[in-house]
Specification:
Shape: globular
Strand content: 15-25%
Number of helices: 7
Oligomer: single chain
Structural class: alpha/beta
Low-confidence stretches: 1-12
Strand order of the largest sheet: 1-4-2-5-7-6
Largest sheet: 6 strands, mixed
Radius of gyration: 15 Å
Order of helices and strands: EEHEEHEEHHEHEHH
Mean pLDDT: 82
Length: 193
């Protein structure tokens, strides 16, 4: 299983996809990208799970909502709560949560859910997100609060996948620090070891 680019390649290979959403240039806003990469490098999944670096895909997410049975989106959630709090929000509850829409990609995620909910077929979608501390500072990094709570985000994602019938087995991979460092000075070797 390798990370797929957000092009639709590999959609027939798995019925479940994990999509990391965010912008790594704005500190904690990149946590979804780092979490997807962490899962890819530190777990084996059976049956296979596609893992996508979705960046700030927005409207292109519609393809995934219709092509997979299960979609897990990893992102920040702009909910008035303590930074570092982790939420697992099914699509239905997210659509009614106006305060979630703080960044451009958060708005697009919800808008695509609302549009797809009116179509004949849509995946079961969960957004697993963490309340950010800083999404304004231009810095390819994470705040200490998000670093301390990153494990909770990963654990909740693994639990959600297991509830959907996917077995997750840990493997030796890279630490969060190594992944963030690789995004800070990207080379083909550091991003795709």
């Amino acid at each position: 299983m390798g990370s797929k680019e957000a092009t639709g390649i590999g959609m027939d290979e798995a019925s479940t996809v994990v999509i990391g959403i965010g912008n790594i240039l704005f500190k904690d806003e990149g946590v979804g990208i780092y979490a997807a990469k962490y899962l890819e490098e530190n777990y084996h999944f059976s049956p296979a799970v596609d893992i996508i670096d979705g960046g700030t895909l927005g409207f292109k997410l519609m393809t995934y909502y219709q092509s997979y049975e299960k979609v897990v989106i990893l992102d920040t959630v702009s909910i008035k709560d303590k930074p570092g709090s982790v939420y697992n929000l099914p699509a239905e509850s997210l659509m009614g949560l106006g305060s979630y829409r703080r960044t451009a990609h958060e708005v697009e995620v919800v808008e695509m859910l609302e549009i797809c909910s009116m179509l004949d077929s849509m995946a079961e979608v969960n957004i697993i997100g963490i309340v950010p501390e800083d999404i304004e500072c231009v810095d390819i990094s994470l705040t200490e609060t998000i670093r301390k709570n990153f494990g909770h985000l990963i654990d909740e994602t693994v639990r959600e996948l297991e509830r959907s019938g996917v077995e997750a087995s840990p493997k030796d991979g890279r630490t969060l620090e190594e992944i963030v460092r690789a995004y800070n000075s990207p080379t083909m070797e550091t991003l795709n070891p």
